[in-house]
């Protein structure tokens, strides 16, 4: 019985076996402002003073962030204080109007309406502050 032979080509040579190629790809990533020390060393090899430049950039970004948050906090405090002053002025004007309406013997509903403005504002402020906490 004849043995199975590999198929032959024109020159009686076996067919070439297809070769497989593998490609390996790697990537690195990090979170936060600084890369790991090994990456900093690689940056130094590629760019002169690369690690120093990255550190300077991180320090500048941190200083900017601190300044931004500080100015935002100061603006919030100013806005809150301004709101308190405006609310106090409106309340005093309403109470003054109430006293004047009593003095000129206006209808009692006018005095009640004028007093209800600051009371309603105070109740609203208290309820709003409790809901945001």
Automatic annotation (TrEMBL):
Amino acid composition bias (Low complexity), ranges on this chain: 18-31
Membrane-spanning ranges: 83-103, 109-127
Keywords attached to this entry: Membrane, Transmembrane, Transmembrane helix
Top-level taxon of the source organism: Bacteria
Pfam families xref list: DUF2335 (PF10097)
InterPro entries per the UniProt record, alphabetical: RP532
Chain spans, region Disordered: 1-35
Name of the protein described by the UniProt record: DUF2335 domain-containing protein
Organism of this sequence: Undibacterium arcticum
């Amino acid at each position: 019985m004849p043995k199975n032979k590999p198929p032959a080509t024109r020159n009686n040579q076996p067919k070439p076996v297809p070769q497989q190629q593998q490609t390996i790809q790697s990537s690195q990533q990090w979170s936060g402002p600084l890369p790991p020390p090994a990456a900093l060393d690689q940056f130094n090899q590629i760019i002169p003073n690369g690690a120093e430049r990255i550190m300077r950039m991180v320090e500048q970004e941190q200083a900017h962030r601190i300044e931004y948050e500080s100015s935002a906090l100061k603006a919030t405090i100013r806005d809150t204080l301004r709101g308190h002053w405006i609310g106090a002025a409106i309340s005093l004007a309403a109470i003054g109007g109430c006293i004047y309406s009593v003095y000129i013997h206006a209808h009692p509903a006018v005095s009640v309406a004028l007093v209800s403005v600051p009371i309603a504002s105070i109740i609203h402020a208290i309820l709003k502050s409790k809901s945001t906490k």
